[in-house]
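Sequence design from tokenized structure. All designs in this work follow the same two-part layout: the structure record, then the generated sequence. An example of the structure record is given first.
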């Protein structure tokens, strides 16, 4: 994952991504304090059974305009996630997070994005097609 670019906190399970959370029994994501690099071995094991995105949260480099969630100014998912939180930003106690400084959602929307982040799981089928298209557009 490129460290000079912002990080998408809702990516797919692929080598080079980072594991940033585990979906608990209530369907919420328990965010890890420190991300874990995703290896090819992890990918192979994680794809046994249910889709890994239903069990884990992954982060990877934000592809910006290469993603259909990009609205020309930022990530529309980050905006939607942040809009779920009605509290005043200065009253929010942020959960531990290992990607906050480079997180697209946090940089774009501040603490409200962090508070709603555990509510989000990833639709891998939709994202896989976006990532493929996004990678193609970045190399063209």
């Amino acid at each position: 994952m490129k460290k000079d670019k912002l990080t998408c906190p809702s990516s797919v399970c692929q080598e080079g991504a980072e594991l940033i959370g585990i979906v608990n029994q209530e369907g919420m994501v328990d965010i890890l304090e420190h991300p874990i690099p995703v290896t090819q071995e992890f990918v192979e094991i994680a794809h046994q059974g249910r889709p890994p995105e239903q069990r884990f949260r992954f982060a990877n480099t934000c592809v910006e305009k290469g993603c259909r969630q990009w609205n020309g100014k930022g990530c529309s998912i980050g905006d939607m996630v942040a809009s779920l939180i009605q509290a005043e930003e200065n009253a929010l106690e942020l959960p531990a997070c290992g990607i906050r400084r480079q997180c697209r959602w946090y940089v774009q929307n501040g603490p409200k994005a962090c508070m709603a982040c555990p509510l989000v799981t990833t639709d891998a089928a939709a994202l896989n097609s976006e990532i493929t298209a996004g990678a193609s557009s970045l190399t063209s």
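The mean pLDDT is 85. We note this feature because it recurs in several other targets discussed in the main text.
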